[in-house]
């Protein structure tokens, strides 16, 4: 399913969890793993001086410096590389999000793995709106392939995972996320949990919602799931459908814990806007930062059909 995987890293400890998942998936699928690092921005115009993103030091950008950075990355991920040889390490100077997307296009990768942000704060301190890194936002918005975001330690990852939660808001982008979740579930033989959270915060705006209205909305959502997703599952019957009411990101997290999810798959954003212009939806952002398992953000139908 994955022939080429890209691990975008800052080379710092905040990417250790993503490194574990990236090498784990590459090993499982015998995929080629591209470990990619954007080492810094040129100090000005066509200057050959760059500021190293890890040390903050101004360095001469030349072949010797790039070779040194590659060697440092090799040493950083030595424990993984010793067990997995099908890898390539690359480093360039530039704007991180732009260079990551450029490299992903050039190599035609099937999956990008990266951390949620590059900050050193404790995980608990990062669980606030706007904490997701701008580079991750940029990549998740424009990547043509799924982006797997890892913000917490993952013990099962994709070697053993057996439960995929697909969270939908019925947007056009959500269908691409569904195709990826379905493809992965069939490939691995996982149970696919199709889930929708009825947004009670929106329903409650200025009025009291009756139980009958809630139940009618739940029933309408169930019909929509049957027509939109279940009808595309064919003979695959290892799935279930659930609809809970509440605050969407809270319900998705609660549901994922209840199902022992190893992976959550969601659309990049909820609103029907140009995907290239959209920012990461607030629901996805909160799920990314709080989930105890990796979260796959899917923005385009490319590479997810089948």
Q: Kindly state the mean pLDDT as a whole number? A: 83
**What's the SSE pattern?**
EHEEEHHEHEHEHEHEHHEHEHE
Low-confidence stretches: 121-132
Distance between the termini: 10 Å
Helix share of residues? 25-40%
- The number of helical runs is 11
As a whole number of angstroms, the C-alpha radius of gyration is: 20 Å
Give a quick set of tags describing it.
306 residues; alpha/beta; elongated
Question: Could you characterize what this model shows?
Answer:
- The protein is α/β, with parallel strands linked by helices.
- Strands 1, 2, 3, 4, 5, 6, 7, 8, 9, 10, 11 and 12 form a 12-stranded mixed β-sheet that branches.
- Helix 5 links the parallel strand 6 and strand 7.
- The N and C termini lie close together (10 Å).
């Amino acid at each position: 399913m994955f022939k080429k995987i890209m691990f975008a890293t800052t080379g710092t400890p905040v990417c250790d969890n993503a490194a574990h998942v990236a090498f784990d998936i590459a090993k499982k699928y015998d995929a080629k793993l591209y470990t990619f690092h954007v080492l810094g921005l040129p100090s000005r115009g066509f200057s050959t001086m760059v500021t190293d993103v890890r040390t903050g030091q101004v360095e001469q950008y030349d072949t010797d410096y790039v070779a040194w950075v590659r060697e440092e990355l090799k040493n950083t991920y030595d424990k993984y590389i010793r067990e997995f040889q099908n890898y390539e390490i690359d480093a360039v100077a530039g704007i991180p999000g732009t260079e990551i997307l450029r490299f992903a296009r050039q190599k035609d990768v099937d999956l990008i793995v990266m951390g949620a942000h590059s900050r050193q704060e404790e995980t608990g301190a990062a669980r606030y709106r706007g904490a997701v890194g701008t580079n991750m936002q940029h990549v998740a918005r424009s990547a043509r392939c799924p982006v797997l975001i890892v913000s917490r330690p993952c013990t099962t990852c994709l070697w053993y995972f057996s439960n995929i939660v697909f969270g939908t808001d019925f947007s056009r982008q959500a269908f691409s996320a569904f195709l990826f979740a379905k493809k992965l579930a069939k490939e691995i033989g996982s149970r696919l949990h199709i889930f929708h959270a009825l947004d009670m915060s929106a329903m409650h705006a200025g009025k009291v919602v009756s139980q009958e209205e809630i139940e009618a909305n739940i029933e309408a959502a169930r019909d929509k799931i049957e027509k939109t997703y279940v009808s595309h599952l064919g003979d695959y019957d290892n799935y279930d459908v659930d609809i809970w009411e509440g605050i969407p990101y809270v319900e998705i997290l609660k549901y994922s814990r209840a199902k022992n999810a190893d992976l959550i798959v969601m659309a990049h954003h909820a609103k029907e806007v140009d995907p290239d212009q959209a920012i990461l939806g607030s629901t996805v952002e909160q799920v990314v930062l709080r989930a105890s398992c990796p979260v796959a953000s899917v923005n385009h139908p490319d590479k997810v059909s089948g």
